[in-house]
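dumping the sequnces here before i forget
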Amino acid sequence: MPNAKVLPLLESDAVVPCCPPLTERPMTAEEAESAARMFKALGDPVRLRLFSAVASHEGGEACVCDISDVGVSQPTVSHHLKKLKEAGLLTSERRGTWVYYRVEPSVLAAMGKLLAVPAAA
Amino acid sequence: MPNAKVLPLLESDAVVPCCPPLTERPMTAEEAESAARMFKALGDPVRLRLFSAVASHEGGEACVCDISDVGVSQPTVSHHLKKLKEAGLLTSERRGTWVYYRVEPSVLAAMGKLLAVPAAA
DNA sequence: CACCTGTATCGATAGACGTCAACATAGACA
DNA sequence: TGTCTATGTTGACGTCTATCGATACAGGTG
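..and the predicted 3d for all of it:
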């Protein structure tokens, strides 16, 4: 049963239909505009640490209080989380006192596909 | 006796020893600094188009003259190509009149791994 | 109600970035 | 040599961005 196993997150059509792999054909201006937004969001060390902290946290979600120890002030943390949210990489939800952020797996997968390297050397 | 052909340390899974997948554990400040440089390089629409144009070009390399039609001036194209080079995403070589840029597949692969989504849902 | 804690927003500032015109450099060719 | 083309560099300018302190908002507790 070769096809009994479905790749969990990568096959979904829910994946943001951004663009074909970078190596497939030259991106159009619109595609580049859209994809660059996501790369840009991860192009800051603080945001990358925040995102990684959320992504690697148990259950793929984390309270701000769990991840805000990245060496910048609280307003700055909040600012970066907002940017990641605007880029579609994170979603947030308030539960009582705390706010929880979680990763958007489909977007992550879409970015991974963009960087896919063709099998042939 | 010298080897006729030595494979660079850049192939295989050894890739650039940047960082584990974003979802594996929180990145350290140093890892984030390094990885953010690469994402940042792709975080500009013009650079993304240039990179995609090179990556999708025949043989994985392209002359500047082949890809410089992205709607900005020639100095700006040169500036962005330099940035991509500094980020380790492209290499360049002059051959006669023209300068050819080619992608660094190992770096691309490393970025892809960074974004790898765990198989388990 | 008042108070405390966690998080977001505001306003200001310093520095980074994208862009261009002008100029410099490298190679081809006569 | 000189000139032409292709590409890189420089300097300047306007915009974006990361950061902070101060403040506002939300929800829990007493």
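Confidence is low (pLDDT under 50) at residues 1-14 of chain A.
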